[in-house]
Amino acid sequence: MTQEEYKDEARRLRPRLLEVARRYLGDEDAEDTVQDALLRLWQMLDQLHLPLDALASVLVRNLCVDRLRRRQPLAPLDDRVSVDGVSQADTDERIDRMMAVVAQLPPLQQTILRLRHMEGMDMAQIAALTGSSEVNLRKALSRARQSVRQQYLKQYEQ
Hints:
- The protein is mainly α and 158 residues long.
- Helix content is 77%, strand content 0%.
- It contains 8 helices and no strands.
C-alpha cells in the first residue's frame, strides 16, 4: 500500500473508528485510541492491503478493551450507595465484605459482575468486550451472582 492510499483510507475510516471508540470509552479517550490505531497501521504500511475496514475496527476495539482493563473505577463504590435507615459505617462494612467475596470469584466472573453492576454496561457491550456470546455471559453472570450470594451468606450471615 502506498502512503497516499493509506492517507485516503485513514481519512475515510476515521469517523467510523471514532464512533467505535466512543461506544467503548466515551469521548475522553476515543481520539487517542483512534490515533494509536492509525499509528499502528502506519507502521505496518508495507504489509497492508485495501480495504482496511475490518482490520482497523478490530484494532480499535482491542485498544479500547486494553484501555478499559487499565482504567480505575470512575467513582468509589460507597459514593454510589445510599441506604435509608442504615448507618454509613454499616454500609461501608457491607460493601467491603461484598467486594472481598467478589474478589474470590474467577477472573471472568469478576469482570462480568463489575462491568454489569459497577460500570452499568449492558450485555451486548460486555459481549463485545469479552468476545463471548450474550447467552454465555448471562449464564456466567447468574453463576457469579449465585456464588457471591452463597459465599456472603456462608461467611457473614452465620
